[in-house]
Design goal:
Elements: E1 2-13, E2 25-39, H1 49-64, E3 78-84, H2 94-109, H3 116-131, H4 137-144, H5 151-154, E4 157-161, H6 169-200, H7 203-219, H8 225-236, E5 240-243, E6 255-259, H9 263-272, E7 277-278, E8 288-289
Antiparallel strand pairs: 1-2, 1-8, 2-3, 4-6, 4-7, 5-6
Helix pairs in contact: 1-2, 1-3, 2-3, 3-4, 6-7
Bound molecules: (R)-mevalonate.
Length: 290
């Protein structure tokens, strides 16, 4: 039995502007997708939508690359089980994680050497099918792992789930397009300032940058009024919060990345809004063959 898992991700900052070549800071979270795959006597039943996306990408690669010594006409039958802790479509990189784990497992099944660069290349192809014009940052993070956040900061994060946005990532990228130009440089500056601030565990500056970065995301229309309302409450209480990933326009915006020096304040706000929330370790290992 082949077992491969991949983590979800959060955007510390730089979502949307990363699509236009600007830097972004992401890290992995300790929620994973796990794929079990083993050979079977025959293909079982129907083919899932995911299989319809993943198999052609893998087949195309194996025909043209030297990674595999055989030109594959057909993928032998196999059984696949996918389990996931990552909320789907909430800005936590669920699509990149499931593709990475599936592709990794399928390549092992086809006797291709375990190679993170190859898994990344093919996962990026799958991300293009899902999201149209992705930056590639999500797949890189869930495959290679994310930056380390010192515990001093990491222990005060809470992820609040506002629900799955009605809008897809593709739609949110389109929606942001007309206004993105005016935030590109400022968001780039903030992302660059954020890295040393995180490394130093400088809480005051961290809060300032996240607040400013969130304001920029609001300027491009990717934060619904509902989510902005919750974020204002957190700021008023002395913390900082931002959407995480593509966001949403109508109501649900997926995960809010929230921070306060006293985590209980965030938990209280989430409870008052009747929203699920959780904390998780950051900077965990990327895609993994068990
Ligand atoms: C999606 O998780 C983040 C976006 O920046 C899109 C991308 O990077 O491909 C909105």
């Amino acid at each position: 039995m082949i077992k491969v898992s991949a983590p979800g991700k959060i955007h510390l900052l730089g979502e949307h502007t990363v699509v236009y070549g600007k830097p972004a800071l992401l890290t992995t979270i300790d929620l994973r997708v796990t794929v079990h795959l083993r050979g079977a006597k025959a293909h079982l039943g129907g083919v899932s939508n995911l299989t319809k996306i993943i198999e052609p990408i893998v087949k195309k690669e194996l025909k043209i690359s030297k990674a595999s010594r055989f030109a594959l006409k057909k993928i032998p039958p196999y059984e696949l089980t996918i389990t996931s802790d990552i909320p789907i479509g909430a800005g936590l990189g669920s699509s990149a994680a499931v593709s990475a784990a599936y592709i990794g497992a399928l390549l092992v099944f086809l006797k291709v050497k375990w190679d993170l660069n190859l898994i990344n290349k093919l996962t990026f192809e799958a991300e293009k099918v899902f999201h149209g014009n992705p930056s590639g940052a999500d797949n890189k993070t869930v495959i290679f792992g994310g930056i380390t956040v010192p515990n001093k900061l990491a222990k005060n994060f809470v992820l609040i789930n506002t629900g799955k946005p009605k809008e897809s990532t593709k739609e949110m990228i389109e929606l942001a397009k007309p206004r993105i130009e005016k935030i590109l440089n400022d968001q780039e500056r903030l992302v660059k300032e954020l890295l040393p601030v995180i490394q130093d565990g400088d809480e005051k500056k961290f809060i300032e940058i996240i607040r400013a970065g969130e304001k920029n995301l609001e300027k491009i229309g990717v934060v619904s009024p509902y989510a902005a309302g919750i974020i204002r409450k957190i700021e008023k209480a002395g913390g900082a919060a931002k959407i995480c990933g593509a966001g949403g326009q109508t109501r649900a915006t997926g995960i809010l990345l929230t921070y306060h020096k006293d985590k209980k304040v965030l938990e209280k706000i989430a409870k008052a809004e009747n929203l699920p929330y959780f904390s998780t370790s950051l900077g965990v290992e990327g895609v993994k063959l068990h």
